[in-house]
Each structure stands twice: as C-alpha cells, then as structure tokens.
Write a structure and sequence with these properties.
The protein is α+β, with helices and mostly antiparallel strands. The chain contains ten helices and twelve strands.
Amino acid sequence: MTNKLHLRPDDDDRDEPHGLIPAMDSYRHELVQLVRRYGAGLGHRLGCGTYGCVWDIIKSDGRPSGYALKISTDMTEGPATQAVIDTGLDKEIYGLARLDGVWSMPWRASQAVEAWAIVRENIAPFVPLPWVSDYKLVELFPEHQELAFDATREEREWFRSLERYNSWTSRWVEFRREGGEEEDEDEAEYAYESRAKAIGELYRHSETETLGEAIECLEEKGVVLADLHDENIGSRIFDQPGWRAAKPLPGGLPGYPRYPLLAFDFGQTTATSSPGVPTIEEFRRENPGLAAVADAIPAL
C-alpha cells in the first residue's frame, strides 16, 4: 500500500503551476485523508495546465481506482465546480464528468497561493497526454488507445463548432458582465444568437451531441459552461455504479474508435449564484477515522 503522498513523479514534461506544490505540502495530511477515501494513494501525475495538475488515485494493488485528484489555483474553478455539483447534472447526463467533491485550501504562511482540491472521475482526454502511454492505459483499456482520434482535429466540423461556441460565449458573458450602451445590448443579443447557433451545430455531430446537451441543461440551472476547448473534453474510460458507460460511435476507423465527448474542467464557468465551497479542514474534521492513517505517514 502506498505510504507516502508522491507529488513529483517525472512522467510529465510540463512544470506545475507556481506555488502549487507548496500549497499541497501545506495541506499534506488533509490531502492524504482525502485520497484515502477513494483509494490507497496517488499514482501518476496525469498532466498539468496553466493553473493546476491532475493525479490518478490508485488502489492498493496499483491499479487505477477510476478517480482523479486535481489541485487548481484558478480562482474561478472551485466555485464553478461546486455550482455544477449543486445542479446534480453530472450524475444525470453523459456530457459532464462525475464530480465527487471540491474543497478549498485557504492560504497558509507556507503557501504562495490559495488552491482547490477536486475529486472527479478519471477521464481519457481528447488531447493526448504523456500518461496515456506511460501509465499503460493501452494495456488496461486497449479499446481507448486512440481517444484523440487523429492529428487532424482542426479539420473536423465539430471542432470548428466548438471554437465558435467558445468565442461567442466569451463575448456574450463579457457583454452581460459589463452592461452599458444600447449598441452593446445589440452586440450581446447577436453574440447570444451566434452562440445558440454553435450549440445547434454541436447537436448535429455524434461526438459532441452530449456537450450540447450539457451546455443547455446547465444553462437552465443558471450555469454557463465556458472555456470549453479541446483540452477540457474527453471520454469516459471507467465504469462505476450509476455511471453511463461509454460506447463507441459508428464510423470509427481501425485503431481510431469514436466516443461521445464530455467536459471535465470547469474553470471560467459562470453561475447566477456563488455557492460556498467547504474547506479541506472541514473534510478532515468530518472524517476522523482517516486522521490516524494520515498522521502516521512520514513527511514529504
């Protein structure tokens, strides 16, 4: 069984965001408790972006648990993730990753930044990352070895529709936030109509029909899914009770199966309400049975 919280595996060539590792070290005991709720420890670092990194949560035998831990320093991601959880839609529709919880990691003297701890299902990203081969996912799930489909994603119609959705959503949200003159209202209306057209286009493609549904269902609940680019979408690879399993879509080539896509990163997403996010200290207090295990683990 893993007896240490490994934070720096050398399987990703992108450096972690500034201050992320010190923030994790500051809350090491709480994070160990959190991880032990889902598995034995952290496995490979699955990838890093501008504001965060994701680790696989593994079982005692080293196999994946189906869950992943993300630590993010994006100020918007904690409340946005909580807003999605509060809708309950991640448990009802396929187009959203299953989210198990989000906890804030408030600033401490040893930290340079505040951060969020997010536990979600582990997703095979549309854009391939080093862990896909390093972590032997091909051996565990050979049918998912080419989830990135091919190198010509820009030529796919749905890819251009997704870019249009992002562009017009960004403009619409900006107009809504700023308000202003009558001509701005006209621009906002045009942006909204163009955005609606892009959503309709997503519905016409089998891979992204699930994303169109997720966008519209969330908006009905007051949550506007934004920043939905190709690095924030992927496919389901693990089956858990109550989860809709991924089934290949027709039309794939040998070695290049096609799967419906879902969103798994909710940074920059906006909501009509600003939900409170529990702190990771609260998680530790509410799970005293895990405290002794975490405290017994040696320092990093």
